[in-house]
Amino acid sequence: MSPQIDQVLAQAVNDPDVMETNEWLDALESVIENEGPERAHYLMERMVDLARRRGAHIPFSSNTAYVNTIPADQGEHCPGNLEIEEKLRSMMRWNAMAMVVKANRLDGDLGGHLSSFASLANMLGIGFNHFWHAPTEDHGGDLLYIQGHSAPGIYARAFLEGRLTEEQLQHFRREVDGKGLSSYPHPKLMPDFWQFPTVSMGLGPLMAIYQARFLKYLHARGIADTEKRKVWAFCGDGEMDEPESMGAIGMAGREQLNNLVIVVNCNLQRLDGPVRGNGKIIQELESDFRGAGWNVVKVIWGSGWDELLAKDKEGILQKVMMETVDGEYQNYKARDGAYVRAHFFGKHPKLLEMVSKMSDDDIWRLTRGGHDPHKIYAAYKVAQESKDKPTVILAKSIKGFGFGKSGEARNTAHNTKKLDDEAIKAMRDRFQLPIADADLPAIPFYKPADDTPEMQYLHARRKALGGYLPQRRQKADEALVVPALSAFQAMLEPTAEGREISTTAAYVRVLTTLLRDASLGPRVVPIMVDESRTFGMEGLFRQIGIFSQVGQLYEPVDKDQVMYYREDKAGQILQEGINEAGGMSSWIAAATSYSTNNRVMIPFYTYYSMFGLQRIGDLAWAAGDMRARGFLLGGTAGRTTLNGEGLQHEDGHSHVLASTIPNCVPYDPTFAHEVAVIMHDGLRRMVTNQEDVFYYITLMNENYSHPGLKAGQEEGIIKGLYQLQKSAETTKHRVQLLGSGTILREVIAAAELLQSDWGIAADVWSAPSFTLLARDGQDAERWNMLHPTEDARLPYITQCLKDTTGPIVVSTDYMRTFAEQVRAFIPKDRSYKVLGTDGFGRSDSRAKLREFFEVNRYFVVIAALKSLADEGALSASVVAQAIAKYGINADKPNPVTV
Known about the structure:
The chain is an alpha/beta fold. The strands form 4 sheets. A 6-stranded parallel β-sheet has the order 9-6-10-11-13-12, with helices on both faces. Strand 10, helix 26 and strand 11 (631-635) form a beta-alpha-beta unit. It is elongated. This is Pyruvate dehydrogenase E1 component. GO terms for molecular function: pyruvate dehydrogenase (acetyl-transferring) activity. Its cofactor is thiamine diphosphate.
């Protein structure tokens, strides 16, 4: 007998008034039978409240018993033809297995996952057959975040539906030739199929939460009717260890996202072993979600357990269920019925007596709730009808269900992808598929004729729900009008004499102009993470309001100010608090709204650049996968612009990170006119042309005057390089100076020093995007390699610089790697010197930081003089004179190493 049960019995023995206890219990039983469990719950809550107010110590617990949340007599039964649905699931299990095993017999390194879908098949089948709507005129369609490792099962279903061909299944994970299926849900690779990427793990539940909130946002603002729509996210119990999985559940509860359902597939295993071998993951997750304000539905035991639980009048079975840890449960399902009888029911004599008339096979057929269609249907029905809370369904299942000895419930299940002939035959037999023994070595795909009852049922169920899922819209049906560039004329003109602004202020003025635009204004989605005042955007609070489903239930402390903090049910700003991952998830929801909602939205997520791509890089990559469209604004960008903040707070590498995302279009503008031209180009590409790109623009909080746009500069700004000023001097020596962002102004100052101090002419180039210059150069280089007999293409940067003279010197506020991207495309006979801010940040004034990182005007001059000396145009002594003249400590440590 276990210690826990001993303790329970001891408590009963030590009861000072057994008769009174039984009277209370009988009274409660009577309430449950006559008035229902809701009334019993209410009375219990009132009694607990009274006891606590009178000083009784009643420990709090957010857990319930380790049984199904929905009692056996209250769950709604699945109305479908379960015999046919089981046959269809068997076909899908087989085809998913065949797809992966075939691929790995051809190429053992392709990989693939079978066990996740094997444990999830019933949960997905109930949803596809009875709950999930495709987009129609009356229903915007449900949004599905499919557990990434279950992708083969989704393909197997689509194959039966006729949406995928056998040839495509044969090319699982063989995508290069254009016939294959992606390893995981990837909208980038299958743009008309997958709605969302859900790998890397943890991103699915996080993005789903903010997607659900964004549907509320659209509805509240009258942009789209999302009232009937649900967001369903499937994830594994091991995946819930990812901080992103759990990080936003409090927001979902607080916002009462009743349109959100997360299904956690609790098969108790991850890659290496049990998720909580010494504990109970379902109980742990129940406590977390319930405490965060969620409706928690546990689906632990299949229908076969109902009779046993009904007999459990003393609660012994429930106690054993509770005390048994997950490592034991995993072990049971890796063995057989005799083992379960001895090691589970054998924990108490009365349990052995309870199952004495059951055979070992009967005991083995006691299923877990995640494999019981009726239990799953009942849970989904409760989730669908939730009125004021998000719902999490914790469904217990078996990893590798159907694999038998080849991997069912074993630690190796996750990696099972190469079944032998015996295992394949056993799987055929278990799921009763009409495949001849002689055909088994070929592992054929199985699909019944279109006129069979199974296939007719499959199509009828999806027809009743509006069509097939998953499916993805590639273009929005609506067309919004982007204003002409002249709409931003104030930003295109030189700043008035004596007036200075930052590029952040220029951006805010562009954004304000867009908000006033009749066509685009309502579709602008400003997203903040508690830094609005830093960027001078607090004026938007009163102007357009902060979205809140309850409005503003208090009078703001700054109500007497012009720019007070205003929350509104129809507010336009999404204020995410100190939460970069949340801000990015909201941005992704808005940036893909053209697909998910058939509504073009234009999100602007503004944040400290240091806490952008570095912190949410995985989400930015997911945005690329999702073909997101919108603007990311990295404020106070650069290693030396955010002075005073220090080592971890200064960004010298976000542009390097941005360069790794192929459909991210990054810019580091210096002047207001560049900001306006770039943003207008982004609107043209993303709104007018509906191109699947997104823009990353870095902004500075440093004030200075701006020269304004000159005719013909637009193309160079967009391509990434244009000549800002050409020296009129006709001196013996000339250099070309390039820069971007705030350091371009140091480059301009360096040009003046070169002329005044050393008689050297310097042309100045603004390079808003070294990354775009590099991509253009790489594209030209590739084309030339593959077309050797045709006229060579010249990269844009080469075209710009080929007719200039003198060494080329670059200085930016980013790592040298940023500008080094284009070295290969510099004219071959030219010197190319790059200055950058490699190393950790420092806290000091901007001037001192630029001196420390050796990117200021004096170092630009030194680099130019040294380059001329290296070419033999100047004596090295001139460089030494300049070092002395500008007071540069030639022996100071390299900033990279200190």
